[in-house]
């Protein structure tokens, strides 16, 4: 079909050119003065009816180039029209159906793989969160245990210090009581000539005589105490033990 159109177009163009050329030659021939003799008639006819068509044929055959793109497009359209116009066969329909099923299976496989990948990612994320939570709980428990141990140690240290202070106080109190008891025993213990007394701070020999013998006989008592203890004067010192006759 494309070749026929091409040939028809070529023939139509040739005829148009031939007609235009003939009209031009006829017009020129009319404008030219009439020949005086019949010797120019035959060459003119030869030129008009033989040389011009041959020249046109040579031009078309060797120099004229048709538009191949238009012809190619026309051929492609015709071929596609012919292909589309043919009814699909059963094998073609089955092949198309198989291709569609295969595409659907591939899409389902891709969707399943993507879903599985998402599930695996979610599981890994949950596992990581559980590990982080477990690590945080373990760290918190460790901190709580360390704090409890520190508090317990502080309590034990405070209790030990309190116990040490109580023991020191009890020991000091016992020693004080013991010293007081020993002092009382020394004061109440009689000697061969009477009893003894320990001089306390700010006590004098006269006061000791007043406390033990009375104010009326204090002067005589001072002399007796001096004689019993071998004192040359009335000077005494705290903690000194005196014999009271």
Q: Could you characterize what this model shows?
A:
There is one protein chain. With 245 residues, the protein is mostly helical. Helix content is 78%, strand content 3%.
Keywords summarizing the entry:
245 residues, mainly alpha, Membrane-bound Lytic Murein Transglycosylase D, Chain A, two-stranded antiparallel sheet, 6 helices, 78% helix, 3% strand, rod-shaped
Present the secondary structure layout.
Layout lengths: L1 H30 L9 H22 L5 H18 L4 H99 L6 E4 L6 H9 L4 H12 L11 E4 L1
Antiparallel strand pairs: 1-2
Helix content: over 70%
Strand order of the largest sheet: 1-2
Q: Can you tell me the number of structural domains?
A: 3
Can you give the mean pLDDT? 76
Number of helices: 6
Shape: rod-shaped
Main sheet, how many strands, which sense, barrel?
A: 2 strands, antiparallel
**Series of secondary-structure elements, N-terminal to C-terminal:** HHHHEHHE
Q: Based on DSSP secondary structure assignment, what is the total number of beta strands?
A: 2
Q: What is the end-to-end distance?
A: 172 Å
Rg from alpha-carbon coordinates: 75 Å
Task: Briefly summarize what is shown.
With 245 residues, this protein is mostly helical.
């Amino acid at each position: 079909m494309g070749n026929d159109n091409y040939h028809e177009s070529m023939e139509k163009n040739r005829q148009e050119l031939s007609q235009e050329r003939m009209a031009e030659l006829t017009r020129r021939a009319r404008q030219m003065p009439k020949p005086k003799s019949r010797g120019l008639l035959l060459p003119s006819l030869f030129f008009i009816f033989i040389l011009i068509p041959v020249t046109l044929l040579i031009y078309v055959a060797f120099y004229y180039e048709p538009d191949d793109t238009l012809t190619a497009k026309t051929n492609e359209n015709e071929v596609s029209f012919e292909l589309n116009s043919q009814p699909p066969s059963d094998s073609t329909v089955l092949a198309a159906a198989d291709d569609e099923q295969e595409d659907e299976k591939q899409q389902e496989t891709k969707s399943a793989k993507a879903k599985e990948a998402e599930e695996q990612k979610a599981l890994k994320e949950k596992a990581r969160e559980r590990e982080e939570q477990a690590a945080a709980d373990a760290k918190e428990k460790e901190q709580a245990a360390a704090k409890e141990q520190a508090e317990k140690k502080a309590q034990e240290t405070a209790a030990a210090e309190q116990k040490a202070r109580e023991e020191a106080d009890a020991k000091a109190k016992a020693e004080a009581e013991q010293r007081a008891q020993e002092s009382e025993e020394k004061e109440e213990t009689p000697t061969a000539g009477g009893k003894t007394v320990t001089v306390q701070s700010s006590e004098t020999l006269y006061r000791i005589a007043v406390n033990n013998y009375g104010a009326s006989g204090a002067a005589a008592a001072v002399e007796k105490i001096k004689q019993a203890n071998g004192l040359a004067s009335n000077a005494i010192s705290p903690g000194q033990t005196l014999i009271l006759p």
